[in-house]
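hey all, quick one before standup. I had two proteins in the batch that finished overnight and I want to keep them in one place so we stop losing track of which output belongs to which input. First protein below, input sequence then structure tokens straight from the run.
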Amino acid sequence: MPEMKPSLEVNDNSLGNSFRFQRCGWPGDSDKWHFHPEYELHQIVRTSGKLFIGDNVLTFRPGSLFLIGPYTPHNFVSDARSGAMVPERDLILQFRKEWIEASANVLTELRQLRPAFDEAVFGVEYGGETQQAVYGLMNGIDTQEPLERLISFMRIIDHLKQCRRKTVLGTSRYFIDMRTASLRRFNKVVDYIHEHIEEDVAMEAAANLVGMSYKMFSRWFMECTGIGFRRYVIKTRINKSCEYLFSTSRSIQEICYLVGFNNVSNYNRLFRQVIGVTPSEFRRKSQEAQEYDFPLEGFAAA
């Protein structure tokens, strides 16, 4: 099972490029619950599976295209058979918000691209013709000269801005306060939740962990996540149970207790509230998603 504790991913930009491009196979070093300060444009080339992002669980397939905002925890879990190696599963572009803002301040024409980044604070999924257009640009970007790369990057962002078939993925934001001290506190709390996911997760214990009073902690946590501590714990447990449902054959009753719920009926009710379907429906739909055909040129179900 993938590690659910979000870890900070540090990217090397020592070459001085304005953005970073990668072709990534699966499994790989970043196949874990992680976050980073860069925006990430992520396109799936091979396999279907589940994207765990913030407090959402989504299905991906070849061609799926996502723009993920800074400091948003995420993980892509493929449904490939156990032990399989999938070369070049993903095409990834990472870039800093500061670079975009600085460029827009100098080149007025770039300001029209800002809405594409503003809406990606929560993550965005792009559909339709945008998937194929972006793939055509990303797939050759690592063979281009520096100026050509930059032009291709701007064209990619322009496609995202003009896309009519897009879905904003979340309604609450992680890490609203980007100061290092606040990030350290938040990570301590998240670590505590995941380390005790099968047990009682008490807000008072979490508050003591970061040196806050109960009342102050409650207000601070709401500001960081947009939801209360108890609701966050429930969503974390449901998120973890989705991974079990998707990638194991464990029974629903067993999964219920593995993620800290004390009765199956309560687990089923809360799962439907958060995900929109029952655990059994989620598992069935996940299995059905693996049977889709993906006709887009350049993509394969692998």
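OK second protein, same deal, sequence then tokens:
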Amino acid sequence: MKKLIILIGLVGSLFALTPVEKYILQMPKQSLNSAEVKDLEHMREEEKLARDVYITLYNKWKLPVFKNISKSESWHMHMIKLLLDKYNLPDPVAKTGNRVGVFVHPKLQKLYYALVNQGSKSLIDALKVGATIEDLDIKDLDEAMARTDNQDIKRVYANLRHGSENHMRAFVGLLRRYGGDYTPVFISQNEFNAILSSKKRANNVLKTKITNNFVRGKVVRVYTLPGLRRGVTWIMLDINDNGKTLRVALAPTWILNKANIQIGDYVEIKGFQGPYSFVVCYIKDKTTGFEYQSNLKRCQK
């Protein structure tokens, strides 16, 4: 009976996993070198640093952005923990009992105190701290991605980086609304500008001609974005038709790992208009011959 209860518990925990978690766990394990191990342990605590600072600053200023993004950072922590467990690596957060403001890494401990002290001076300083944390996070994620060839680790790092870009836009947007601004310290000014302008491009995307839920045009951008569901990332395309651009959601990355679609390809798409983008039911890349048929319920109607 005891073995049966344990078995039921394991099966239950498996089914509780989100699709993106299952996708990462099902990707092949590859050997790890010392740099990859060090990066995973560091990123686990660096995501905790972000969460803890935002929790502390929310308690100080009661600004919702800190509370909302702290929840996102908890998910970032969770995804790194998923990799630590997959590769049977020790969890530095477990050593501190996951207590807010307590870290194994001395530099992160010192940085936590410095950031909280700075962010406690004024609301503008607090928002600058948020931008600084995301600035650092993007730089460290880029460097960690360059040091690994493990596809599951790269996938998680890339998803976390997209999240950090969203957080950067949120903090800088509010900062400017309150009369402040931010100059990047860790990433280049050009990269910083590109991150901020990417939202403008997304918001200013014009609808190309849509006839009977059918569009066609040239691919001008291939990228990924977090979806509406937590932990789900979508492959996205920007399609240009006669000077007008349409944002297209191709498929979640856990369903379609890679699409043979590149900038400059001509594509034909059938789908439907979602809340934030045109969603693909069927796509044919006339340049490469790549085809994809979605199994979304909406596409079956």
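Flagging for whoever picks this up: The chain has two domains: 19-197, 214-300. The chain is about 50% helix and 15% strand.
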